[in-house]
Amino acid sequence: EVLLVESGGGLIQPGGSLRLSCATSGFTFTNYEMNWVRQAPGKGLEWVSYISTLGNTVYYADSVKGRFTISRDNAKNSLYLQMDSLRAEDTAVYFCARFAQRLSALDNWGQGTLVTVS
Amino acid sequence: DIQMTQSPSSLSASVGDRVTITCRASQSIRSYLNWYQQKPGKAPKLLIYGASSLHSGVPSRFSGSGSGTDFTLTISSLQPEDFARYFCQQGYTTEKTFGPGTKVEIK
After folding, report:
1. For range A86-103, the mean pLDDT
2. Other C-beta atoms within 10 Å of B59: how many?
């Protein structure tokens, strides 16, 4: 069974930092590109960041560029999101999601972790 | 950046109804269009990829069509478990933009 489990969310003051983790199992992590997607309370989905299988290519939404850093540890089957200079508008549930290249779609998602900036 | 729009933003329907949701991209995305279903407090689930391909385990009452800029998600006979929010997403660029969502509610 494919599992993605996020952790690291919580309440943080504006300007603070937080590091989210996504532990994965049930699939060969090194074969998959990964993404972070967030959802502000009562709002829609916003793609946040992408990382290639080897971690050498990353992309960010304009809204987080320069403040967030995506990374991965293939030896630990884990994905990370370092969030710095947090703002109130970063308040959201953050999901990690597996990208299936063959489908060009996010085919498995974690349950999400809530980040509240206040 | 590619912008995605959806209509309607919400709809009310009864069990057994045929429901259609549309999604439009600001430029051609060929067939790189995906549909997701999300229930309250849960993660999104992939329903349709490549505009018209049914993801594994998804009931056949769901179908998708379209290419270029205009796409449609159809539920042929709405079931109680289908009341949820539906999002389209373009998979054409690395910045995988989502539509704003369509909430399907019980009439």
Report:
1. 97
2. 13
